[in-house]
Amino acid sequence: MASGMETIGTSLRAMAETLPEDGHVMPAFFIGHGSPMNALEDNEFTRGWKAEMADVPKPTAILCVSAHWLTHGTWVTAMDRPKTIHDFGGFPPELSAAQYAAPGDPELAGLVRETVQGASIGLDQGWGFDHGTWSVLKPVFPKADIPVVQVSIDIAKPGEWHYQLGKQLNRLRRRGVLIIGSGNIVHNLRWMDAQRIDQGFDWAMEMNEITNGLILNRDHAKLCDYQSLSKSAARAIPTPDHYYPLLYTLALQGPQEDAKIFNDKAFLGSITMTSVRVG
User: According to the UniProt entry, where is the signal peptide (predicted)?
Assistant: First the structure.
């Protein structure tokens, strides 16, 4: 009987043969995910996600970096059947009852572990799909028939470290893997204002304008050091959890690839739904 390591090695070799690196290069996305209710709603944001992904070939698998999986060290989900995590409160019962029953992909998890150099990637058996992942995938891929893995965010590491880790994932795009970073560039829940349902505070709009300009100008180094961009950064990005997924997506941008901004709108005063497509 083959050992576990032999089985994983055989599976990785089979994946490499089936999904050659010189194949079609998948685009990559950063999605401003906002409220988990987007999982169930048909609104301007979910329609924007669908429109931008309408021309994407069906992925062999999806890799998501979600703002809602913060860890010490870096982990990738490696189970066959990830659970749907309802990591929120105060929403209608139908949201807590919602499921996203996509399969996991232990082979892809192993390939991620092999691909990344300079960081130890743990194979996780206990997490699943948090709402940063499934609230985006459910409207866009409702059949839940594409394998999905999540990569965690080591919250102790700085922006540049996450950007460099993201670069190493680029080869997966040539294997049919759709990579999605899910968060919000401007994200301050303490300052949410129901009276500003479609508006942003001045500091939110300033930070959004600055980051948009840097994204379009490919100035990734400045984006990694976001705290130094403006005095508004301290209020617009009080913690980096929702911001770091952007860096994973931008790290994938090739020399000949443009970045497109969509869903560029503020919400509840202190959140921006700004999303980015690379490739």
Answer: none
